[in-house]
Uridine diphosphate glucose pyrophosphatase NUDT14 isoform X1
Amino acid sequence: MERIEGAAVGRCAASPYLLPLTLHYRQNGTQKSWDFMKIHDSCDPAWASVCPSEQGTPPSWAVEERSVTILMFNSSRRSLVLVKQFRPAVYAGEVERLFPGSLAAVDQDGPRELRPALPGSAGVTFELCAGLVDQPGLSLEEVACKEAWEECGYHLAPSDLRRVATYKSGVGVTGSSQTMFYAEVTDAQQGGPGGGLAEEGELIEVVHLPLDGARAFADDPDVPKTLGVIFGIWWFLSHVAPGLGPQ
């Protein structure tokens, strides 16, 4: 996962995943504008201009990006189930943070190799199991169960899930909506290795965080993690942990 080579950055001229837009509006009599991104629901295999390897009609773009995330507690191990993976945007951000100006020289002639390169660990983050709601006909609970299996190898049914919260994320860029679920699992429910779908380029490692170290993990600013991890841990410690019996 952390063996990253030949990292290069170029301008994104066209993307099958992101659509940059500008909202023009008047607020309290003042004309304003704001740039934002919309997320492509799923690449229609028929549109050659967006998916060069395919042919057909334009894809649909999500009116609002929706996703789900799942906080799992493995009662067999008394651990919280997290994942970690390499995030290119985090990696590029770390390069720019440590070597200001590294991204400023990017032009439209082609990708420019990042110098100096950082180890792949600079772009690895701890996260909750999560996924986009991009398959028509599936409920949020069904999507969450699908992601739990693909990423972490746990068999879950929609009835196993407890809805924690629905909230906005990426409010300045995507205006996304995410729903968090909670589920208690056991080792008996882990029937696969997880790791994500290789055909989609996913390379995910399952991490079992011991419960007695969860608070320190959430509070440690040197551990790269998402806000969802911090919120999930504190929600668990407030709402679930007090009711757990002794180990």
User: Anything to note?
Assistant: The longest helix spans residues 140-152. The longest strand covers residues 18-27. The chain has a mean pLDDT of 86.
